[in-house]
């Protein structure tokens, strides 16, 4: 089984990779199953049919996926290529506590196989440009990031896995905050995830970003295993042809070394387990 469970296309604001080309490339790469997870980030982005003016950041529209077109296109792709590859329908919910109700309405509108829940912003402030971190100590912004994550998953349950759980590390200009100092917050998040029957993802983009550790880190993955966590997905966070399927087999080996035996794909929001050594 070769599956990529975090894939963006031109339906996401930060990609121009056409969905059909993604599928054709995946077939060529002998990927068995692919799940599209287009961006939705209420709070900083609006829906195309919201009636609000679409603001552009460079060439990128600050808009969420065009859901009706997205769903229609996925169905057409399933009909055209379904005999060659399994195609699953997902979204990546970039959620904040004050946007939960908007995501719930969206989830209730459509049938999904898979939802990644990610914390991309806090108080509508982003990490990549240091807006969120500005004026805070390293301790303050790390703790606030995980506090927001914990509060979101305490309130919202219609998701499958937490995406790139320690994303804040990628944008920490002061270096990686010591795990032991943030462990109580991470453990609380993982305990909630496990209690709710949810999972976490291994996001292989850590390799292309040149990070020294996996995303999430080995320590988070080890803690998740020690706490009894079993639901794991692996995704490339692909936005371009060179991202698709990258480092997924390496991630399987890493998970085996940590002691995990299985990973998951999803069908109608239910995990399907696969042996890591296959």
Automatic annotation (TrEMBL):
Q: Name one Pfam family in it.
A: PHP
Q: State the pathway, as annotated in the record.
A: Amino-acid biosynthesis; L-histidine biosynthesis; L-histidine from 5-phospho-alpha-D-ribose 1-diphosphate: step 8/9
Task: List the keywords (alphabetical).
Answer: Amino-acid biosynthesis, Histidine biosynthesis, Hydrolase
Q: What class of enzyme is it?
A: hydrolase
Name the GO terms of the biological process aspect. L-histidine biosynthetic process
Q: What is its EC number?
A: 3.1.3.15
Instruction: Fetch the NCBIfam families from UniProt.
Output: hisJ_fam
The family database entries (PANTHER family) matched by this protein are listed as: HISTIDINOL PHOSPHATASE-RELATED, HISTIDINOL-PHOSPHATASE
Which protein is depicted?
A: Histidinol-phosphatase
Its source organism is: Faecalicoccus pleomorphus
Q: What are the leading ranks of the lineage?
A: Bacteria, Bacillati, Bacillota, Erysipelotrichia, Erysipelotrichales
- The gene is hisK_2
């Amino acid at each position: 089984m070769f599956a990529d469970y975090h894939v963006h296309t031109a339906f996401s604001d930060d990609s121009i990779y056409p969905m059909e080309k993604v599928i054709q490339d995946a077939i060529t790469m002998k990927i068995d199953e692919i799940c599209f997870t287009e961006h939705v980030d209420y709070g900083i982005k609006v829906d195309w049919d919201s009636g609000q003016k679409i603001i552009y950041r460079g060439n990128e529209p600050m808009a969420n996926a065009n859901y009706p077109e997205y769903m229609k296109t996925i169905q057409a792709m399933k009909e055209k290529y379904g005999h060659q590859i399994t195609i699953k329908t997902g979204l990546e919910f970039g959620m904040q506590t004050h946007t939960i109700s908007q995501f719930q309405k969206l989830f209730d509108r459509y049938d999904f196989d898979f939802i990644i829940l990610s914390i991309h912003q806090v108080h509508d402030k982003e990490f990549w440009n240091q807006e969120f971190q500005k004026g805070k100590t390293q301790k303050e912004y790390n703790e606030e990031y995980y506090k927001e994550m914990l509060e979101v998953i305490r309130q919202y349950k219609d998701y499958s896995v937490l995406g790139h759980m320690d994303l804040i590390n990628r944008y920490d200009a002061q270096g990686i905050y010591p795990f032991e100092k943030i462990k109580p917050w991470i453990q609380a998040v993982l305990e909630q995830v496990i209690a709710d029957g949810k999972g976490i993802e291994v996001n292989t983009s850590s390799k292309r970003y040149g990070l020294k550790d996996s995303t999430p880190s080995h320590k988070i993955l080890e803690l998740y295993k020690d706490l009894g966590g079993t639901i794991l997905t692996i995704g490339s966070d692909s936005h371009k042809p060179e991202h698709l399927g990258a480092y997924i087999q390496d991630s399987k080996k890493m998970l085996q070394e940590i002691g995990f035996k299985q990973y998951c794909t999803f069908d109608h929001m239910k995990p399907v387990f696969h042996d890591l050594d296959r």
